Amino acid sequence: MGYVAIKGGGRAIEGSHAAVEALRAAEGEAGTPLSLSTIENQLRLLTSRVLSEGGLYHPRLAALAIKQFQGDTLEAAFALRAYRSTKPRLLETPVQDTSRMRLIRRISSAFKGIPGGQLLGPTYDYALRLMRLDLADESSEAFRAVARRFMQGVPDTALPDSFPKVVDALRAEGLLPPLAPRTQEAFDITREPLVFPVPRSAALATMARAETGSLLAIAYSNMRGYGDVHPTIAELRVGYLPVMLPHPVTGEPVEAGEALITECEVVAMYEGNNSDGPPVFTLGCGACFGHNEVKAISMAILDRALQKGMRDGPRNPSEDPEFVLLHVDGVDSMGFASHYKMPHYVTFQSDMDRLRTTQSKAKASAKGVLA
Q1: Residue 300, CA distances (Å) to 58, 121, 295, 350 in order
Q2: What's the total number of domains in the chain?
């Protein structure tokens, strides 16, 4: 493509930066700058989305990116990824065990009673979607009283440190296939390009930092009929996952911290034949940083669809690994859409020249026919 470099526009660019900063502070001297703690806690779901799409678990930096780019999740995720790329990789974690999560929410739509019980936790699922006009003029005292009221109603009984996985019960009953042994290292999408066909680990890693809306749209196409994955959520869990790292001296795994993640495991229609053994349910998995249930559910549905497409050949867009994995990354998509804002003077001048020439020939041809 014939792009044209911008020259001599330094003062205009500086003015553009000043204008966007001025809009951020449009309230003037009466305004109060948002603190990173305020963004991280009061806009926690927005922070979770940027954490996930940025591919870096650092809530404070995610809040900073949200503040810097005025709530634009794509730009904030872009900045977070760019920051991550400047940091050295010290080591790789071993496989983490999500059954050890310290849960704040855990539900199943497959069973009413699950081992350990349902834990509704923080969610808007059971609330009316009505505007709370009282929040428009919320006082500082009323805001602080919210947490106090909640803590007064918390029972003294402590929650268990961990809960059993629902899929483990299904697997023990022979309704799910046994866990396959790991035969290869996980694909590193930050170091290796996607060259198709790709392993399942590459698909999961790509979707884990994909743009939430993109995943939802393609998963929705499958649910709507351009596919046949009609899942039941075996378990959806949100909680803090202990991050285990090898001790630098002993090599023994030690807990280095914890990360808030959302995990979803969906059960789909059973498959199987005589050579594979008895029929069993199929399983799709999704997991991402932060509290983002829609993304984890969409990812689990697409994981199941992609497994089917890689085995039998894709029959729908949501079963095609190339279609899905090359179109769900928000930073990539934003970059390609935004590049059209660059000067295309040379190419468009060429387009106009060709069109004018074609019009002239068409007019000359028409005159010849009339003569």
Answers
A1: 24, 21, 9, 47
A2: 2
